[in-house]
Specification:
There is one protein chain. With 173 residues, the chain is mainly α. The protein folds into 2 domains: 36 residues; 100 residues, no CATH class. Helix content is 71%, strand content 0%. The protein is built from 7 helices and no strands. Helix 5 packs antiparallel against helix 6. The chain is extended, with a radius of gyration of 27 Å. The N terminus is likely disordered.
Length: 173
Amino acid sequence: MNDDGESNGTKPGRVKRVGSYFGRRVGNPFISRVGRETLSTGAVEARGVLKPERISQQEVRGAIQGRYADGGRLRFEDLMRHNGLGADDLPRLEAMRTRQFRAMCVVSGLSLLLGAGVPFFTDDWLIMISGLIFGLFSLVFLTVGVRHDFAAWQIRERRFGGLREYLDQRWGR
């Protein structure tokens, strides 16, 4: 028979419950100190890493209109050469990015359907909020999918064009 009593469905004894309570509350000072130091050191490190950089208006315009005078063709060729890719590798990369775009669109749609369906199957407000969260996840998945489609378009065009060119050529205005 086991000492803890939990494996056979009975409650553990009073001594074990009180002991585990004080063990959790008081704990080992060494473990408490190490845990506190680890937490505070991690927080300091996270603050240093997670500070967002300011983005200039020029950088935003470059992303929308394109950063390169030649449409990014030279930069694309340089990057292909640097990564050791040939022209025969590009169709496979484009197909992979297109598959990822389609997969993200499917996951986004399923997430949206699940989020829209949750309120019909429950009366609990907390679970209804999870439906909103599924809707937000849908937007995240869709954003990731559009990023993959943008990369596939860049591979197809063999250049690093701007976001406006992508939207005009791929989706039409």
